[in-house]
Design brief:
alpha+beta; GMP Synthetase, Chain A, domain 3; 2 domains; 4-stranded antiparallel β-sheet
């Protein structure tokens, strides 16, 4: 019987293939075009406050990567929704936390630091007077966010701080939330 098994990566830290990650980093360092990515999400109203986001893939370098995901979004009953799904703010905070988690986990792995536990909680306040347009002096979004990180693993507190500072400095979603990002919009009215 001739059975071929897929070889498993040998250098795994925090569940990540370090050799594969290093190869990707080297490839992007040698040819920046291979590291250019394009992301797209199409969202359609489903009725009331329910929307459905469809992910069909992304582009990396000159390669289209097919992947299909559906993300349902709603609002709490108190904000006019059905409370069946998390709302846009919860998805935003989850995306921020997930991005910090990925970066921190990968940087720990690349530095040989094994994680036992990692949890990030982010919170912030939104004044609905801004959202409802009741007071022009009140912003419709967060004036600030607070993230608390709990970590346990094989590094010292100073090493964890150094790695986490790097993760914050290189996180796309930390950048997207803390720096102005130009948003170009087009409205198409169907006849």
């Amino acid at each position: 019987m001739n059975v071929h098994a897929t070889p498993q990566p040998a250098n795994i830290v925090n569940g990540l293939d370090i050799d594969g990650l290093q190869t990707l980093i080297e490839r992007v360092s040698a040819d920046s075009a291979t590291g250019q990515t394009r992301w797209r999400v199409a969202t359609a109203w489903q009725g009331q406050t329910h929307s459905r986001a469809q992910v069909d893939g992304f582009e990396m370098g000159d390669e289209a990567v097919q992947r299909r995901y559906v993300i349902d979004i709603d609002e709490p009953l108190e904000l006019g929704g059905t409370d069946i799904y998390a709302n846009p703010q919860e998805h935003l905070l989850a995306a921020l936390n997930a991005c910090m988690t990925v970066g921190f986990t990968a940087l720990c792995a690349l530095n040989g630091v094994a994680l036992e536990q990692l949890q990030i909680v982010t919170e912030g306040d939104i004044d609905l007077r801004g959202f409802f347009g009741l007071d022009a002096t009140v912003a419709p979004g967060y004036p600030s966010l607070k993230s608390t990180v709990w970590v346990k693993g094989s590094a010292s507190e100073a090493e964890f701080r150094r790695i986490f500072d790097m993760a914050l400095a290189t996180s796309p979603n930390v950048h997207n939330i803390t720096k102005p990002v130009r948003l170009d919009t087009t409205l198409v009215v169907e006849a």
